[in-house]
Amino acid sequence: MGWSTSQLADLAGTTLRTIRHYHDVGLLAEPERRANGYKSYGVPHLVRVLRIKRLTDLGLSLAQIADLGDSDEHPREALRELDAELEAQIERLQRVRAELALVLRQETPTDLPPDVAVMIEDADLSPQDRSFTVVLAQLLSPETLVKYAETLKDYSRDPAVIEFDHLPEDADEQTRQRLAERMRAMPYMAEMRAAFPDPAGLWSDAPRGVEHARRTVVKVMVELYNKAQLDVLVRMNG
């Protein structure tokens, strides 16, 4: 006499719900039924359930197991693929742990790469400028981002920058032009022009492409700065 569904689940160390799910997704063949209508499972069913359970414990999905069919007792290729995936995951987790250790050790903010956060931790950035830098960190290549961060290491808020931060949207033409000229003359701007003679060069090697970076930068600037501030930035870089 064979086993009932509950007995099969108990022998395999699983649950009734799991056995029923294996039936539903086609991983486990339906057994014969006894005269009273109850299912009667045999050794092949138990072996199949144990094999499925073992493969899922190793990390294969039920869909992957289904693709293997019933006869492959040693799915070499599937296990090799799984091993490669696990190796990549381990490498990623090791990188995350190394970065986490740096963040914890140096108590740097988590919205920027640790090396960049360390470089600009003493920069007196306004909330808007810092938000802009955080977005740039997602757009620029690692090399360009470090180069950009280098220009911010000794950044301090010049009186012209403070005026810019508080510039009302209805600032008149004369005020905008005068402020643009003052900001253009700041030492920081000289450093930025030396590092990036062409402003578009900032995202010339952006991983997701120049156009994506440009569109994102424009959208971010429109949200962070009012129309008068944007006009000053255009004049300053004109």
TrEMBL record:
One of its GO terms (molecular function) is DNA binding. SUPFAM superfamilies: Putative DNA-binding domain. Signal peptide: none annotated. Pfam families: MerR_1. Residues 76-106 form a coiled coil. Residues 1-71 form the HTH merR-type domain. Keywords: Coiled coil, DNA-binding. This is DNA-binding transcriptional regulator, MerR family. It comes from Lentzea albida.
